Every structure is written in C-alpha cells, then in structure tokens.
Amino acid sequence: MSELADRREINALLSGHFADPFSLLGMHQTAKGLVVRALLPDASEVWVIETSTGRKCAQLECLDGRGFFQAIVPRRKNLFRYQLAVTWHGQQNLIDDAYRFGPLLPEMDSWLLAEGTHLRPYEKMGAHADVIDNVIGTRFSVWAPNAQRVSVVGEFNYWDGRRHPMRFRRELGVWELFIPAARPGQLYKFEIVDAHGQLRLKADPYSFEAQMRPQTASMICGLPEKTEIAPERQRANGFDAPISIYEVHLGSWRRHTDNNFWLSYKELEEQLVPYAKEMGFTHLELMPINEHPFDGSWGYQPLGLYAPTRRFGTRDEFRSFIAAAHNAGLNVLLDWVPGHFPSDEFGLSNFDGTNLYEHSDPREGYHQDWNTLIYNFGRREVSNYLAGNALYWIERFGIDGLRVDAVASMIYRDYSRAEDEWVPNYYGGRENLEAISFLRYTNRTLGHAAPGSITIAEESTDFNGVSRPPEMGGLGFWFKWNLGWMHDTLDYMKLDPVHRRYHHDLMTFGMLYNYTENFVLPLSHDEVVHGKRSILDRMPGDAWQKFANLRAYYGWMFGFPGKKLLFMGNEFAQGREWNHDSSLDWHLLEGGDSWHNGVQRLVRDLNHTYRAHPALYQLDFEPAGFEWLVVDDFENSVFVYVRRDRDGNELIVASNFTPVPRYDYRFGVSQGGRWREVLNTDSGHYHGGNLGNCGTIDSDDWGSHGRSHSLSLTLPPLSTLWLIREA
C-alpha cells in the first residue's frame, strides 16, 4: 500500500468509519513479511508475543498518536498464534488480539440465517460466551446490512467504539466479532454508523438478559440449558384435558405493603404458585415478561424479546419460578407479542438507519392505536427472529405454551384504519399474507420442534380456521380466545334481570359456532380496565344481587364448552378496576368471612369439581359433549344443558338468571335415576341464600321436553346448579 492509502485507512479506522477492520488489523502476510497492526488507544508500548514460546517477536511502532500500531515481524513468513503485550499507564497487560480470529458463523448457519429458516437463530446471533483456539471470550453477531460500520462497546472496552469494530459478512448482512476476555455479566451494546453516517447506540435484539429501565444495555450471559416438556405437562395441554387458566400480571398480583414494591420472582414462587395450586387452576398465564421500557404497557410493548424483565429478578430466578410451577402441577403460558414494538431509539427502530425490522410506509408499519411499529413479516430475517423467539421460550425456559397477542391486528392490513390509511396486498385484498405465512410457519415449527406445547390466539374477528392446521387453510393455533362469547354473555349479565328475557339469545348464540374453533372462554385483563369496570361491578342490582349474579355467571362459564380463563382478582370478585401500579385488593378477604371470601371459595370449588368430572372438559370441541335440555325458556331466563364424556357419563348445568326462585321446575333428561347436586352457587358456603335440593333428586317417569324421564328441581334465585347421575 502507498503511504497515502495507509494514512487514509488509518484515519477512517480511527474516526470510526472503516467498514473492513480485518483487512487492516491483525496479522497479515505481505511481500515484506508478516505485518501486525493493532488499534490500541492510550497504549504507550506494544509487543508481539508468540503464544507457544512466550517470546517477544517484535515491537509495534505507533504510527498515529490516537492509538494505531504496526510492526513487521522479522524472519517470519507463516502466520502463527500470538498475543499482544500492551502497556497502558505504566502497567503491562498480556491480551489476545480480537483480529487474529477468522469468521465465526459456519457455512450452514450462514445459509439458514440468510434464507430465514434457521430453527434456532438465537444460538448464533447475539452474544455468546465461547472458547476459540483455547482463548476465553465472547462472540458477538448482529444483523445490520445497511450499516457503514458496527462496533461492540461495553464494560470490557470503556464503551469506546474505536476499539472493537466488527467484521461484515456481506452475504448475509451480519456483523461479527470474537472479543477475548469479554465475559458473562458484562454489559454491552452495538455502536452503529448507520446508512446515513449517523451514530446509533443499540441494544442487542438477541440479548438474553438486559438492564432494567431506564438503563438499556444488554448483558453477556450464556444460553439457558434446554428443557423438555414432560409427558404429564403435554397431557395437561390436550384438547381433552381440563384447562383452567389463571392470568397474572406479575407486577401487580401482590406488592409489598410497606413500600408498594414488586414481589421478586423468588417471592412469587413462594406465594403465587401455591395460591394458584390451592385454587385449583391448571395453568398460569403470565402477561408479557419480556424486557420493556414502559411499565404502563403491561409488557405489551416489548423491546427485549429474548430477555425476561429484570423488574422481578434475574433470568435464572425466573427459570426457578417456572420450575416451581411445574413441580406444583401447573403449566405455564406466556403472553407473546410479535405484532408490534415501540419506537425507542435504543431498540429495533431504524436499526441500521433504514426501516430494517419495520415497514417504511406508515400505512403498513405504524400502529395508530398503540403508537408502535409493525414488524415487516415479509422480510425473512425478521420472521426468523420472531419464530426463533417462540421456540426459545419453550425450549430454553420450559414455557408450556404461548398466548399470541392481537392476532387480528397482524393478519389484517386495514385493522383499525380508515379506507385510505392502508395498503392492499398483492392481490388487492385486506389480508396480511406475510403475517399469515409467519404465523403458520411458527405454529408448524413449534408442533415439530416442541411437541406438547400449545399456542393460543387472541383473535377478535371471524377469520376462518384460526385453530385449524395450516394444511386445512388455518393458522395452526391450538386454541382461540372466544371473545364473541365473552362479549355476549357479559352484555347479558349486565342487564337488569327483568330485561334478560328479551336478550335470551346472547347466552345461547355461542353454541351456533362452538365447533368452528377450539375455544378458550376468557375473562381477561382487557375486561377490567379503561372504564369497563370490574366483572363484579358490571352485575346489576344491590350488593347481594351483584354477588349472586357473579356466582351464577361463573357457574355457567365453568360448565359451558371451552377451556377457562380468569384474570387475577376475578376469583375473589375485586370491586374496582385493575391498576397495574398497585396490588390486588387482598384486604377484601380480611376481617372476617365476606361475600368476597364466598366467591373465592366458589371459584376454588368450581376448579376442583370441573377437573374431577371429564364430562365438563373431555369433549369440549365435539358435538357429542353438549346438548341443550332447556334452551327456549326466555320468560323465566332459565337455561339447562347437559355435558357428556366419552363413556356417556352426564353432568347437568341449570341456571336461573332472575332473582325469582323457580320451584318444581321440570325438564326432561336422557337418563333416569338419582341425581346429586355437586355444586350450587347459592350455597350458604358461598354466602348465597342456601336454597337447593337437599343434595339428591330422583327422576320421574314423566315425559318432558321430548324425553321419557324428567327432573323437578328447585332453582334458587340468580344461581347455577351442577348435578351428576349417581350409579
């Protein structure tokens, strides 16, 4: 090289605008022999040391006072392993040169990453502690195809972007570097000179642990060990299994009373897990725990998809929490948000100076409802980043399933948009074909790579086949939230009972489409915020009627076909809306037995009784599992249906949604004999009026409702009864 060329490259390197540092730094064979160049700001003396002998081979000359050193190693032509003896401020340090190591990504991984089909991209991207050529350090990789230069900055190099510029793998748009002595526990970021020459400081998209807000650095840490979904946990996720989900926001389930601070993962392990088990739930669903900058998003605006939030402790403490849940017989579901991300500067937004993860057109890439950005699902690296994340939580943390947030906003281009605010797809339609393809691919991948895991869609439209296999034209989810059932039944329950006769179909309509999807019946966090009031407060009447209505509604819900979900606080009838900044109102259960204690006991008994009778869950999604016995008694607002299991065992559910007791209420049954009342929401045990049927009722040979046998019951006011036939 000419002196002028050398000087230009040195200036570019030192100014942080040299895109190919490996062509200049490190050891190179030249016509004059071996040349070693190093960038070591503030160093006063540098020697090349032969690793195998410890012998000094050459002293590097400082060609630029800003820290550029160079030497020709005399009498050596072949490359050899070396270290650098560097003197900083009078103290000599022996270091390994990051620029003596070759490319990091193997050919097959590079090909799969470029194609966007790498099953586990997180094993190669991000920061990974490693040993290369007997040197301990960390290998870093980041996708930024349009950047002019990318450096790793962190605690190991004084956050100085000049010290560790990365190698660019042009064929896949990835920058990589192995940094000796960078170790787990140290913080880092990527310093990027973007496509426009602007300097950006970015957190690692694949960071496995991160600082808690407002700090934003990533942390070097190893991948968690792989886990397997045990056979009993796989069975607990089955279509024919009892599934009762307790949805929890970890930051507000319970707080310390002295300072209103969050419980830690360890404290949640000691308090939440045994509580959910005692209450009879089968699954815990955690609202998003990915690292996120804004508490008020409840985790639904994540920027660290691969990092559990540090708000409640370390990643390993979170893994311990999950293990404790499994040991208690609880499966764990995680709220997962692949639909959008916030625009915070340290995150994915304009990552390399271009709209890399998001669409450039705001009609495609901006969520008006949430002031967030939409992933470009058609870009294979983006869909691979997300699909890999889904497997990561299941495979590396033992998560048993994912509830996917806001699916409707992903699969429709015109979601919540006016006519001129969206871009049609290639065929002129409103469907987001790339998002649909991504969801199908992710669900198919989990089915093959993590058998026994499940995905649940929060999908608010009538998109066909959400919980049907992709081979049948579906999206491939295992379950779908039944938001139609939720809205209809809550609309019915909030009515004054005198008006319910005119809206009878709100309670029956769900059965007309029940077998089109595999449904979960959700009373989620969305129903107790933003002025909607608590579930209890939606019930009409005085305090007695409100609680009676709620108990009757829960009895109806737990008997109805579909898996169950209750948001925290619903199980003891919290009276106010949920507030993420404070604890649930546990004080309502203190100071003596109350209506709230009664509802809590009812939910516990509903869960345990539900799980004890296969008729209530085994055939949720098959017509043989349900039959109306009384469907048209709108005058009395009475409903009676029967649930069946595979062996033909029956459980009758009878609801009276008026405050008027119905004595001698007769309806036909398929099986004669003695029937036992196994649950009565009006029981005094639940603070009801204690009206019932004295435990057992014998059927009569009187025909009714087209059946040869019938039962005559007392239906308490605002109540639901469950009855089973005794052998």
UniProtKB/TrEMBL annotation:
Pathway note: Glycan biosynthesis; glycogen biosynthesis
UniProt xrefs under Pfam families: Alpha-amylase, Alpha-amylase_C, CBM_48, GlgB_N
Active-site residues per Swiss-Prot or TrEMBL entry: 405 (nucleophile), 458 (proton donor)
Record GO cellular component, one term: cytosol
One GO BP: glycogen biosynthetic process
SMART domains linked to this entry: Aamy
Enzyme category, top tier: transferase
Segments forming domain Glycosyl hydrolase family 13 catalytic: 247-596
E.C. code: 2.4.1.18
Keyword field: Carbohydrate metabolism, Glycogen biosynthesis, Glycogen metabolism, Glycosyltransferase, Transferase
Reactions performed catalytically: Transfers a segment of a (1->4)-alpha-D-glucan chain to a primary hydroxy group in a similar glucan chain
Keyword hit for Thylakoid: no
UniProt KW Transferase keyword: yes
MF-aspect GO terms: 1,4-alpha-glucan branching enzyme activity; cation binding; hydrolase activity, hydrolyzing O-glycosyl compounds
Function in brief: Catalyzes the formation of the alpha-1,6-glucosidic linkages in glycogen by scission of a 1,4-alpha-linked oligosaccharide from growing alpha-1,4-glucan chains and the subsequent attachment of the oligosaccharide to the alpha-1,6 position.
Quaternary organization: Monomer.
Family: Belongs to the glycosyl hydrolase 13 family. GlgB subfamily.
HAMAP family tied to this protein: GlgB (MF_00685)
Annotated protein name in UniProt: 1,4-alpha-glucan branching enzyme GlgB
